[in-house]
Amino acid sequence: MKNEFFGSKKDCLLSASQCDFGFGPKDINKIKPIGDRIIGQERAVESIQFGLRMKKPGYNIFVSGISGSGRNSTVQKYVDHLSSKATVPNDWCYVHNFSQPDEPLALSLSPGRGRKFSEDLENLMNRLKDEIPNAFEGGEYKEELDKLRKKGSEMKKGIIKEMEEITSSHNFLLKKTSMGIITIPIWEGEPIDERKFRALPEEVKEQMQETQDKLQEELNDHLEQIQKIDDEIQKEVNDLDRRLILFSVGRHMRRLQEDYRDMKNVSDWLIELQEDVLKNADSFRRKNEPPGQAQVPVLAMPMPSGPNLRKYSVNLIVDMSKEEGSPVVLEKNATFANLVGKMERRVEMGMMTTDFTMIKAGALHRANGGYIVLEAIDVLKHPVAWDGLKRALTDGQVLIEDIADHAGYATTTTMKPKAIPVDLKVVMIGSPWVYHLLASNDEDFKELFKVRADFDSSYSSEDGSFEDYCSFVKERVNEEDLLDFDLSAIQSLYRHGVRLAGDRSKVSTKFSVITDLMRESSQMASDKNQNSVNSLDVEETLEFRKRRNSLIPDRMQEMLEREHILVETSDSKVGSINGLAVFTISDESFGKPSRITVNTFQGKGGIVNIERQADLSGSIHNKGVMILSGWLHEKFGKYNSLSVSASIAFEQSYGMVDGDSASSTELYAILSSISEIPINQGIAVTGSVNQKGEIQPIGGVNEKVEGFYDLCKARGLTGGQGVMIPHQNVENLILSKEVIESIEKGDFNVWAVKTIEEGIEILTGKKAGEWNDAKKTWSEGSIFAEVEKRLQDYRESPRLELEAWNEKVEKKKKKKSPKKSKAKKPSAKKK
Questions:
Q1: Are both 437 and 464 inside the same structural domain?
Q2: 393: pLDDT strictly greater than 90
Q3: N or C: which end of the chain has fewer CB within 10 A?
C-alpha cells in the first residue's frame, strides 16, 4: 500500500529520469582515434608545453592533480617527444686530482667519448705495466746504469783515498759501514774495540776523543764532496729513468693528446698524468722477493701486489653513448643519495676508505642536459632530499657529499669531489595539497617551480566528450587486447565516468579507474564465453566490485537491520529525524542514515550542540548549528524574544561529526519539537541551510540516497519512503539502476527542495505558514503558527510564574502583619 503521508508537495517529487543520466543513441562506427590528444586536460597540457619550452632558470614544472587523472602519462609523453628532438648532452667522469688528491676532478667529454677515454686509459696502463718494467730490466738500461755507478765510484775513490791518508796520519782507521763512513782509533798497532777503549787510562781516552773530533772536522768537507757526487749520480740515474719511461709513455701520450686535443680539460689532465707517472717510476718496477721469503697476509687479508694504478683510471659516472636524445630520468626512490650521488666505501686493512673511483652518480647527473621526473611525496618523505634538489637548482650544480656533511655533522670523509654544473628541467608531480604545503612553507619553491600545471578531475560532458570516451575505449581495447565494447557498454562506462565526476555536466578524467573497469568487464564477459562486452557486463562488474569492498558497509547495514543502531523508517515522531552521512574507506564511499533528536524547553540557553559539548563536533558543524539560531530569531524573534532552549544530538555517534550537510535536518527537528508536530520517519534528509532558510547543496548525494534506500529495502519498501535533497543537487543525481527502477515503480521517492518551508511541509504533511504582517501572526493551523504559539507559552510562563509568586508573597505578608489597635495616651507621673 502506498504511503501518501508526504502528500502536499508533489512539485518537489522527482521522476526517475530526473535521478539518472541519459543520452540518445550514438554512432560509434565513425569514432576517430585519440592520437596525440590528452582528453579533458587542455589547460594542463598548455602549461606543460610552455614550461618545457622555457629555458630560463626557475621554469621548472609542478604538475598537480588527483592520482589517475593522466598526470604521469601526459608528462612522459611530452617529455619523450622533446627529448627525441634534442641533442645528446656530454658524458661526465671523475679523475684523480694530482695537485689536490682529496678533491677529484670532474671532466666533461662529448657524448660517447667518456667510455672511449676510460678504455684508452685502461689500455695505456696495461701497456705501461709491461713496457716500463721490461725497459728497466733491459740490457741497455742496465749498461747505462752500470756506467753511472762506475762513474760515481771512480769520482769517490780519490776522495776516499785522501780521507784514508788523513785518518792514518792521526793514527786512526777509516771504515765503511751501513751507517756511513766512521773512524776507529788504533792502539798498539791494532784497531781498538769498545771494551779495550773503556779499559784505557782516562787521559789516553780524552786524548783519543779530542783527536777524533778534530779528524771528523777535517773529513766533513770530503764527506760533503762524496754526498754531492752521490746526488749528481742519482740525478743522472733519475734522468735516465725519466728518459726511459718517457720513451715508453711519450709515444702513447702523444696519441692520446692528439685524440683529445679538442677538449682542453682532458688534455691538461693528461699532461699532469704523464708527469705523475714520470715522478713515480718506482711504482712500475717489479718487486723481486728472495726465494722462500713470500709474505704471509696479515689477518688473512689480501695484500696489494703490483703497481697501484687506481689513480690513473677513469670513473665514468654519466655515459651518454647509447642515448639518442636528451636523457629522461624517472626517479622513483628520490633519496638524497639517489638524487645528488654518493661516495661508496670499501674495507682495507680493517679500515673504511674511499677514493674517486667509488663516486656514484645521482639522478640529477644522469638527467643533466635533459629532464628528470619526480614524485613530490617521494622527495619530501626522505630526509634532506628536498634540500639537496633545491640546492642543485639554486646553484646550478650538483655537489656530491655525504648526507651527514650536508646536514652539518662531522664525518671521517675527506673526499670533496668537484661540483658538476647541471642544466636540466625538473618536472615534479604531486597532489594539490603537496603544492600548497611547499608554497606555504618554502619561500624558494615558487622561484624554482614557476610553472604549475593543474590536472582537472573532470571536464565538460557537452559535445564531443562521449566521442572522446569512445576513442579512449577503442585505444585501450587495441593496446591491451581486450574484448570489444559495444555501444551499450561504452555508454555504461561513460555513465560511470559522469557519476565519478559527481555532476551530470562533467565527466571524470580518472581514466585509470575507467581502464580498470574495462579490464574487469572484459574478464567478466570472457568468463561467460562472450565475444564482446555489453552494458550488463559493466553493471555486473560494478556490483561485483562493490561487493568486494563492502565488508564494513554490510556490517553497518546489519547493525541497522538488527536495530543495534536505532533508525526508524516508518511512522512519525516528534523531535526525531533521519539524517544522512557519507563514509569513505580507501577509495570507496557509502552512505548510511543517522538518527538526530532534539529536545526543546523553556529557557534562555539557545541551541545546545551535544556533540560540541562532548568535543565530538568539528568547526563547520558548529557553524551550521549557530546558523539555526539565526534563522529562528529571524522567523520568530523579530517582535518578541526567544525564550527557548534546544539540545541537538546525533544519536549513537561516537566519532567526530563535521560538515553542515545536516543543518537543515536539525532545523526540521527543532521545529517539530517546538510545535510538537511529528515528522515522517520514512523520509531521510540532507542539505545545508543558511540564515534565510534557503537550502544549500551538499556532497555525496548519490551515496546518501542509496544508503537510505538499502535500509528501507531491507525493512520493506512502503512507497512513502525516500530522501529529501537540495534542489541544486538534482544535477548530481546518477543513482544505481536498482534505485532508478524503484523510483519508476513508485516504491521509493526523491524530493528536491529550495527552502525550509518546502521541506517541513513534505516531512509533516502540514502547511509551513504565511506571515500576516498586519496581524503580526502566522496563518492559522500552520506549523509556524504552532511554533509561535509554543514560543509564546514559553514567554508567558515566566510572567505567570512571577505573578503567581508575587501573589503568594503578598498573601504571606498579609497573614503575618498585626491588627490595628487604639493608641493609649500616656499617663502623667505623680510626683
A1: no
A2: yes
A3: C
